[in-house]
Amino acid sequence: MISRLVVIGLGLIGGSFAKGLRESGLCGEVVGVDLNPHSCELAIELGVVDRCEGDIAAACRGADVIMLAVPILAMEKLLALLATFDLGDAVLTDVGSAKGNVVRAARLAFGNCPARFVPGHPIAGSEQSGVEASNAQLFRRHKVILTPLAETDPAALALIDRLWSELGADVEHMQVERHDEVLAATSHLPHLLAFGLVDSLAKRNENLDIFRYAAGGFRDFTRIAGSDPVMWHDIFLANREAVLRTLDTFRSDLDALRDAVDAGDGHQLLGVFTRARVAREHFSKILARRAYVDAMNSNDLIFLANPGGRVSGRIRVPGDKSISHRSIMLGSLAEGTTEVEGFLEGEDALATIQAFRDMGVVIEGPNHGRVTVHGVGLHGLKAAPGPIYLGNSGTSMRLLSGLLAAQSFDSTLTGDPSLSKRPMNRVANPLREMGAVIETAAEGRPPMVIRGGKRLTGLTYTLPMASAQVKSCLLLAGLYAEGETRVTEPAPTRDHTERMLRGFGYPVTTEGSTASVESGHTLTATHIEVPADISSSAFFLVAASIAENSDLLLEHVGINPTRTGVIDILRLMGADITLENQREVGGEPVADLRVRSAKLKGIDIPEELVPLAIDEFPVLFVAAACADGRTVLRGAEELRVKESDRIQVMADGLLALGVKAEPTADGIIIDGAGFGADAFSGGEVHAHGDHRIGMAFSVASLRASAPIRIHDCANVATSFPNFLELCGKVGMRVVKEAQS
Ligand code: S3P
Which spans in 9-86 are helix H? Predict the structure, then answer.
């Protein structure tokens, strides 16, 4: 592909680049240049280059690509020298750890930045150095950042991109300034702190004792103080401005920590430490995915659902998602410390925790379902440092928008691609009527920008659709609005917000289908026990109903009457479900659900049950496909705006599995196979990133004649992180497909 590659500077990075490309066979010849004759000899001996050239001008004459891999402070002189040569069409590139100074040096040397110069920086290295450490694999699965300029020739950029990709690197493009800021924060500052700390301690008289007793923490923190001092001295001089900016910010944060220690402010310390711990976990996950997992695999987690099986045993599914969200929200707004048990450790509920941490609330956990929320009171939230990212969670976004519309500060709410498609005007419009100022993207989609400092007034509002999220949003805004906020719903929807507000001592009035609140009261911290989620239980209610010889007990399931539509619908279809050990826990009714196989029959689903089973339809469609006769669903257009268009996506999957299913504007018609018959063929279906679709088709495998492969299941973790484990426990044969 290229005739001659010239690498100037045969250290670890230059040597590894040369060796890797030489082995790739992409280059006619690889020529090395280094001031040190010993390095040149070694480079030839070790097969790093084909040959070395003492005369740099001769090496560069007729070269296709010239890689500058000299120490960063030597770059200026080298570029000035290269500017005196006729470089023809050669593409220049470099590996400097700071980019602003290299680009400045190139401009100085050439008069402007040459179009065929592609600045770059591989984020790789090792504690070894020198050409003898050259390793053709060094860049594999490491990031390489290229920082092209407006004047950079796209063909030159594509060529350098290609060369790094050939070495297995994960290439990204970034602006020069951004690169220098990011590296100053993530690499340069930590090195400065490590060098500085070790030196500071070593200077003290008692240093011997300090180092003798230094344990793991010290060792971990100071490992990088063993790095090459000359190289690092170069880097700090080269990236001076960006390092100073990040250092100054850190200095003021460090001062705040010092003040907290001085003042004995444990709350402040706990806040910083819990946020840091969570942030580290969060970033490690992102890094692990980016650096070591192929894009393909991370995007497409496939569930392989093997056919057949019976369902038996006793399980407790994770905590209720709706109640988990609300426990964090109301706990944060309460006076005092709220303890939560049974919290759902799924990504959606974790997004809510993160949002409140971003707004200054100290939240400990979750640890085995236990969370401690140190409430800040109704007026104690602080502006988040940036946009609040809510992942896949519609509940977080809709409920938070009501709360944030009444704060003194501005907020921006964003989400993943699925959430970014979901309608937000259903909350933004009534909030605007209350006096909120909210901007959205086109057609009311996220991101939502919510302006602070607005006075809200109470509203009397009839919901155009049965939605607990909209109702809850308006009630939360109503906690701050002048006068009364009254929300009337066209059909009953889940009432967890009303119940939990009362649990926190906040008065809520319910008269018929209208719930109302007034501002001026406070929330008092409480203890919350989150029951198991009936929506997650639903997969097993259907599983044990459709699989022969099944008998399953689901423990401690929340059976709030606004959530039990799935039980009513399944019973109408002939399911054998009994409620045992009914009790009330923290204002929510709970029971153990026993379910045994049954001969299901098709039904016309009563429309009034739709809002009471709104999240359970994907798996109810699976039940319908196994039932004897036709099942018809109407009045469920809301399903089209859930995490996916659940009517279309389920219809597509059912058809792919040989089921007679016909989507309609507001529902679906399904002709079931009847008891005993295989209801599904095997095949490929797509969850479209919708957790409940992935789990519904997993259940279908119990009555399939061959394996079902379900694509795009990563989001099952949003509501049911241990779904596969529990499937295995009850006898379902669903596994993650091994990734190649
Ligand atoms: C929820 C309400 C429902 C439901 C969602 C959770 C809640 O949404 O689908 O999973 O916690 O309030 P809608 O209000 O949009 O129907």
Answer: 12-24, 37-45, 56-60, 75-82
pLDDT at position 285 is 64
* Ligand 1 centroid, distance to 395 Cα (angstroms): 6
Which residue is listed with tokens 């939502």?
448
Distance from CA of residue 619 to its chain's centroid? 26
Determine whether the shortest distance from the Cβ of 614 to ligand 1 is under 6 A.
Answer: yes
Q: Is 467 in the pocket of ligand 1 (CB under 6 A)?
A: yes
User: Domain locations in the chain?
Assistant: 2-174, 181-256, 303-316+532-736, 321-529
Ligand 1 atom nearest to 469, measured from its CA: 14
- Write out the catalytic residue numbers: 615
CA of 201 to the centre of ligand 1 (A): 55
215: which residues sit within 8 A by CB, 6+ positions away? none
Atom 11, ligand 1: which residue's CA is nearest? 322
pLDDT at 216: 74
Give residue-wise pLDDT tens across range 229-265.
988 999 999 999 999 999 999 999 999 999 999 999 9
- Surface-to-core class of residue 59, CB atoms within 10 Å of its CB (0-12 exposed, 13-18 middle, 19+ buried): buried
pLDDT in tens, 147-198: 999 999 999 999 999 999 999 999 999 999 999 999 999 999 999 999 999 9
> 469 CB under 6 A from ligand 1?
yes
Cα-to-centroid distance, 528 and ligand 1 (Å)? 20
pLDDT single digits (tens) 131-158? 999 999 999 989 999 999 999 999 999 9
- Could you tell me the strand order of the sheet in which 170-173 lies? 120-122, 143-146, 170-173
**466 CA → ligand 1 middle, Å:** 9
CA 412 to centroid of ligand 1, rounded, Å = 21
Ligand 1: atom nearest CA of 326 is 11
Domains 181-256 and 303-316+532-736 agree in fold: no
Whether the pLDDT of residue 478 is over 90: the answer is: yes
Q: Is 600 in contact with 627 (CB distance < 8 Å)?
A: yes
CATH architecture, domain 2-174: 3-Layer(aba) Sandwich (3.40)
The whole-number pLDDT of residue 291 equals: 37
Test site for ligand 1: of 324, 469, 476, most ligand atoms within 8 A of the Cβ:
469
Q: Is the CB–ligand 1 distance for residue 468 below 6 Å? A: yes
Domain spanning 181-256: which superfamily? Answer: 6-phosphogluconate dehydrogenase C-terminal like domain (1.10.3660.10)
To test the pocket of ligand 1, the residue of 494, 533, 534, 719 to mutate (highest count of ligand atoms within 8 Å of its CB) is: 494
Give residue 219's pLDDT band: very low, low, confident or very high (50, 70, 90).
confident
**Number of other CB atoms surrounding residue 151 within 10 Å:** 11
The C-alpha atoms of residue 90 and residue 105 are separated, in whole angstroms, by 18
639 lines ligand 1 (CB under 6 A): no
Q: 303-316+532-736 has which CATH code?
A: 3.65.10.10
Q: What pLDDT, on the 0 to 100 scale, is given for residue 457?
A: 98
- pLDDT of 296 > 50? The answer is no
374 lines ligand 1 (CB under 6 A): no
Determine which residue's CA is closest to atom 13 belonging to ligand 1: 467
Average pLDDT of the residues of the chain: 94
**CA distance linking residue 153 with residue 91, whole number of Å:** 9
Place of tokens 């997004």: 351
Percentage of the chain lying above the pLDDT 70 cut: 97
pLDDT confidence band for 739 (50 / 70 / 90): low
Give the confidence band of 304 by pLDDT, cuts at 50, 70, 90. Answer: very high
Cβ of 324 below 6 Å from ligand 1: no
List C-alpha distances in Å: 331 to 36, 80, 338, 373, 508.
66, 63, 6, 6, 17
Q: Mean pLDDT over residues 409-431, rounded?
A: 96
Q: Of all atoms in ligand 1, which is nearest to the CA of residue 614?
A: 9
Say yes or no: CB of residue 395 within 6 Å of ligand 1: yes
